[in-house]
UniProtKB/TrEMBL annotation, chain A:
Chain segments annotated as transmembrane: none
InterPro entries, sorted: Trm112-like
Oxidoreductase as UniProt keyword: no
Protein name as annotated: Protein preY, mitochondrial
Similarity field: Belongs to the PREY family.
Keywords noted in UniProt: Mitochondrion, Transit peptide
GO cellular component, one term: mitochondrion
From TrEMBL, chain B:
Function field: Methyltransferase required for the conversion of 2-polyprenyl-6-methoxy-1,4-benzoquinol (DDMQH2) to 2-polyprenyl-3-methyl-6-methoxy-1,4-benzoquinol (DMQH2). Methyltransferase required for the conversion of 2-decaprenyl-6-methoxy-1,4-benzoquinol (DDMQH2) to 2-decaprenyl-3-methyl-6-methoxy-1,4-benzoquinol (DMQH2).
Listed GO biological process terms: methylation
Pathway where this protein functions: Cofactor biosynthesis; ubiquinone biosynthesis
Organism placement in taxonomy: Eukaryota, Metazoa, Chordata, Craniata, Vertebrata
Major site of localization recorded for this protein: mitochondrion
Protein name: 2-methoxy-6-polyprenyl-1,4-benzoquinol methylase, mitochondrial
Amino acid sequence: MLGLSVSRALCKCLSPLPAVRLQPLYTGAVLTAAEQQNKSSQAFDSSLLQFLVCPLSRKQLRYDESTNELINDDLGIAYPVVDGIPNMIPQDARMIRKDQKPTGSDQESE
Amino acid sequence: MAVPVRAVTRCWRPAALCQWLRSGTPGCQFSQSTHSSGRDTHFGFQTVPEEEKGEKVYRVFESVAQKYDIMNDSMSLGIHRLWKDWFINHMNPTPGTQLLDVAGGTGDIAFRFINYIRAQREKLIRNQTKSQQNLSWSDISRSYSHDQLGPLMGSQAVICDINKEMLKVGKDKLQRLGYSEGLSWVAGDAEELPFADDKFDVYTIAFGIRNVTHIDKALEEAYRVLKPGGRFLCLEFSQVNNPLLARLYDLYSFQVIPVLGEIIAGDWKSYQYLVESIRRFPPQEEFKEMIEDAGFFKVNYHNLTSGVVAVHSGFKL
């Protein structure tokens, strides 16, 4: 292929520049694209944790992989992640401890 | 179907429509026993207890979610696309911008945002190549490392909507179109956003804020999550300032839109609500003052299509 031979020639010309640097860059891009496809469709996108807080206490949340929930340990509330979309509506959240109630939620689950 | 066809033809006459509006269909009447906060709000032209509004709005959008896009196109004759394009051009986001799009369920704003960022990046690269015609090998290797930032150069759009059905439709749609990178979807309430303080560069809400029960609370939350220097942008139906167009617009809204809703989506009531909620939303100047009350500076607005919609903008300084 023309592209391949060009890049090979390019690598040869760039003897001070390690040829391996070009290679991982390319495969890396392919991998992330495939990963992204997979990740965004089902699993929770953990990069969201930098933005997300509990809407009631505005404290950071912990993602629990086993239950697929975002957990506020202080208040004992677990927010479900459905189809990769975290549901941060207190009325839909599950209470882990019985002694504390999230405000405004009468039902524990839908 | 929510309303029988006979009812549609009956309501076509303005007098009958008014009567129908006043009396409401049996399904629209609410029991008065559920007042608990004692405070009423409006749901379209009806007065309902505050606690009920959220639920009612939720049901409206749950029922229209699947047909939302096709209805938008047919009701606005495609003009909503131009409004949204104008909105993004007005925002003029730079690569790296962190966007929070509230009530952005079907992803219309986020999708345009991603496109805009991609175009900006291409322009940047084009300009760079124009200025550097004699590249050294080190320049070439640097251009490779530049790519590591990704095609969006760190930009991200978080789409937050209270309605899970709308989110589902939007996420599926954008995935089909090949947009997944840089997009995150969250179910959350505009009145108590699940985001930390000072996180976003731009907060947008397009055709969403009139459905929020407490608009002032939503504005305060917008202010909270924006970084200092961040911008609030709202696209919403507003008051038509041309009297002739206003007459035509009223006629079209009340006589045509619910009928279209019934024919295309089989749902008269939801579209009746949409039209009514537009009339209940405060006009341009009043909404501008509300934004200022929330703490925003340099608040201004632009009317599009003679004020059928308006874009309000404000900064957190």
